[in-house]
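DEPOSITED CHAIN:
***
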Amino acid sequence: MSALAVLALAGLGGAGALARHLTVVAVAERSGERFPFGTLTVNITGSLIVGLLLGVGVTGTTMTLLAGGLLGSYTTFSAWMADSDGLANEKRPQAAALNVFLSLFAGLAAIVIGRALGGLF
């Protein structure tokens, strides 16, 4: 990977992290903080976009920059797990299980739908 690509990767990573933060905050302001809908939103939309990229045939450095840099920092496994753990520690095991299930199911569905939609172009 060229030096320019590495700089682009870092810049896109920063942009993805900022987009994640702004999205999580915006969703939490609307939905409250009782359930981590913000993290769920970024993980599902990120999965959908990765699916779209796969569906339209993006590969190589472009895929690395977009999926690894931008979307890799936009989506967040650690925050998803921390949110699930927080729900469990609040004695809300059903909400924790729902968060894990919804994220897995909806994330996989989003990838499949994104790939199918991307294949239309």
The chain has one domain: 3-118. The radius of gyration is 16 Å. The chain is about 85% helix and 0% strand. The mean pLDDT is 96.
